[in-house]
Specification:
This protein is of the alpha/beta class. The chain has 10 helices and 10 strands. The chain has a 6-stranded mixed sheet with strand order 6-7-8-3-9-10, with helices on both faces. Strands 2-1-4-5 form a 4-stranded antiparallel sheet, with helices on one face. 37% of the residues are buried.
Length: 270
């Protein structure tokens, strides 16, 4: 177990996640540097979402270590210490996960009200600032149902940075959006990284988006990292698994269906 370098904000070391009948992550190692955009890509079942859930504590880790801003979260024993580490990162979930009965402003204010001692007037000013950063000042008093899907994503971004974290995790930020809105989302992520110095870890299936925003890309397959590099290195990779994925070919080393044996085994184990 090696402590991360000073410019490393996130380090994942030998991460394993196993269930009684299946190992989802098979000893994954990677890191994210301060201020960079790191994109995790791979087909369905590759392990992207499981990594995301393990890092943010939504699912227990079978083995391995996860360092966030120098703290190994797998060694934390008490909830108070864990809550302090949680303040160091923000999370923007795929569907936004906004509270439907609360205004956009109250959704953004929620982390401040629960995790700080700020007075209400200060919180209101900060909420306006966060919404301004994502272009939603006019939506402060609206309910999530009264704004578009793209605006809900941006509101979720504003909430994710409410406590001024060092790192933000984005789970499929472009899912279900049209190309223009995707470009807006991409620009916001780049702004967070370039102007605010945030480390952005992005899970996405949107290839154009990934190649537009990523400083580095990690390709996953069957719970393992098969390729890591810059946009250009991934695009020019000779690995057939990588090429099949980025070119969207149905035939290749990634099968369209499981083998007959695996299929029967899965049914029997269901």
């Amino acid at each position: 177990m090696t402590k991360p370098a000073d410019d490393t904000i996130l380090k994942v070391e030998n991460l394993v996640k196993a269930y009684p009948t299946k190992k989802v992550l098979c000893g994954v190692d990677f890191h994210a540097k301060r201020g960079e955009v790191l994109v995790l890509m791979g087909g369905s079942g590759a392990g992207k979402s499981t990594i995301f859930k393990c890092i943010i504590g939504a699912t227990p880790i079978t083995a391995g270590n996860v360092w966030i801003d120098g703290v190994d979260i797998t060694q934390i024993k008490d909830e108070r210490t864990y809550n302090e580490v949680r303040k160091k990162y923000g999370v923007a979930f795929q569907n936004g996960a906004l509270f439907a009965s609360m205004s956009i402003g109250d959704n953004v204010a929620l982390p401040m009200r629960h995790h700080t001692q700020l007075d209400e007037n200060t919180i209101k000013v900060l909420v306006k600032m966060k919404l301004e950063q994502v272009g939603l000042r006019d939506a402060e008093d609206l309910l999530p149902s009264e704004i578009s899907g793209g605006m809900q994503k941006r509101a979720a971004f504003a909430r994710a940075v409410a406590l001024d974290p060092s790192i933000v995790f984005f789970d499929e930020p472009s899912a279900g959006l049209d190309p223009i809105v995707i470009s807006v989302i991409d620009e916001l992520i780049l702004d967070f990284s370039r102007k605010m110095g945030l480390t952005c870890v992005v899970i996405t299936h949107e290839l154009n988006s990934a190649f537009r925003i990523a400083d580095r890309i990690i390709m996953l397959h069957q719970g393992m990292i098969i390729r890591e590099g810059t946009r250009e290195e991934i695009q020019n990779s000779s690995d057939p698994l990588v090429q099949q994925f980025i070119n969207g070919r149905p035939d290749g080393p990634i099968p369209r269906t499981l083998s007959r044996t695996d299929y029967i085994t899965d049914i029997l184990e269901a």
